[in-house]
Design goal:
Layout lengths: L5 E5 L4 H15 L9 E5 L5 E5 L7 E5 L8 E4 L2 E4 L2 H15 L5 E5 L18 H12 L3 E5 L14 E5 L2 H11 L7 E5 L5 H11 L2 E9 L11 E8 L6 E9 L3 H12 L5 E8 L6 H8 L5 E5 L6 H4 L4 E4 L2 H12 L5 H4 L2 H12 L1
Parallel strand pairs: 1-4, 4-7, 7-8, 8-9, 10-11, 10-13, 13-14, 14-15, 15-16
Antiparallel strand pairs: 2-3, 5-6, 11-12
């Protein structure tokens, strides 16, 4: 393996995860070095930004790590504190490419939470931000893009001639779940909170060898609140959940209204224990409603990854369990850098099935 060839450029918004990835790669290779290239991120008082690369990256295989969902990054602008949003984080990825293109062997983007992933298709005269963002990165010189659990896998068609790897952390999450939860796995049902998450629910149901249920959302199309039509009713479709342990699975928890409403309805249908699993937990409306729902006994725990920013306050909640996916990212980068197939890393289903079978016996 060529340890001299690999370099990581870790933006400040992804520093904690990036350092874990770097350590894991070093452990895999039995080396006591750092692959992280020092950089300087500057913000001027008027909000303009600049990025400088402080070490050589000539002829290197460079992986840029960025968390566009990190809302904790701040800077002073015109005398007040401004929190960086996805647009600013995405612009910083481009700034890195501006600084290194023409010097590297390859430029690879590791963006666990895909930029504008929910703006993946056009329903009318509206922007198509996700597709345009991917195409812009490719035009600037990115060779490949690695992301996790995209909202719609069809978005890869926006860059058909380039490498777009959509990785699922499902097996990592399931391993963590069965390690910590002592429940009867024979008495389990997987539930999709809406029609869009049915395929994900089917995968979990296949792993756990159980059935699925689904909620159908009836929305009030006469109103738009916080950019979406409010939910009028959640109607459950599927097997009887009475006395069953439930896992509700989705890709993103944003405000959490939908998930909490699903948990409430499941409890009204006499479900036993309700767990939630989501790749990304944004908690855009804060933690108060989840704390209240937990106190009411609506759910037991939320399992979610560290692929996007999680506040310390969230991590300290008794109902939240963080799943570390840094080793999975490290494996992907290590194998890609060594020109190996990453297919085995994208499908760890057999190992999970073996562990599930041991639990069910």
């Amino acid at each position: 393996m060529d340890s001299e060839n690999l370099r990581l450029i870790v933006l400040d918004n992804c520093k904690e995860l990036g350092e874990k990835v770097n350590k894991n790669i070093c452990d895999m290779r039995g080396q006591d070095i750092s692959y992280i290239v020092p950089i300087k991120e500057t913000r001027f008082n008027n909000g303009e930004g600049k990025i400088e690369i402080l070490d050589t990256i000539r002829d290197k295989d460079v992986f840029i790590l960025s968390d566009v969902g990190n809302h904790s990054c701040t800077y002073r602008m015109f005398g007040y504190e401004n929190h960086m949003g996805p647009d600013e984080h995405f612009q910083d990825i481009k700034r890195v490419i501006y600084a290194i293109r023409g010097h590297t062997e390859n430029i690879n983007i590791v963006m666990p939470l895909l930029y504008e992933s929910r703006q993946h298709r056009r329903k009318g005269r509206e922007s198509l931000d996700c597709a345009n963002g991917l195409q812009e990165l490719i035009r600037l010189g990115a060779k490949s893009i690695l992301t996790f659990d995209v909202h719609d896998v069809g978005i890869q068609n926006a860059v058909p001639l380039n490498s777009f790897e959509n990785i699922f952390p499902t097996n990592t999450i399931i391993n963590e779940f069965i390690e910590h939860e002592k429940i009867d796995f024979k008495n389990l049902i997987i539930v999709s909170p809406d029609t869009g998450a049915v395929d994900r629910a089917k995968f979990y149901a296949n792993i756990f060898k159980t059935n699925i249920g689904m909620f159908y959302k009836s929305r009030d199309l006469t109103q738009v609140i916080n950019g979406k039509n409010p939910i009028k009713e959640h109607k459950y479709i599927g097997d009887d959940v009475s006395g069953k342990n439930i896992i509700v699975v989705d890709d993103i928890i944003a405000s959490g209204d939908s998930m909490i409403d699903v948990a409430r309805r499941l409890k009204e249908l006499n479900a036993a224990k309700v767990y939630m699993i989501a790749t990304f937990s944004l908690f855009t409306e804060g933690l108060e409603r989840f704390n209240k729902a937990y106190e009411e006994g609506l759910f037991e725990k939320i399992y979610s990854t560290n692929l996007s920013y999680i506040s310390k306050e969230t991590k300290n909640q008794p109902w939240f369990h963080e799943v570390d996916c840094s080793y999975q990212i490290a494996e992907l980068i290590n194998d890609l850098n060594n020109k190996k197939s990453i297919t085995p890393l994208m499908n760890g289903r057999q190992k999970v099935l073996e562990r599930i079978n041991q639990k069910i016996k």
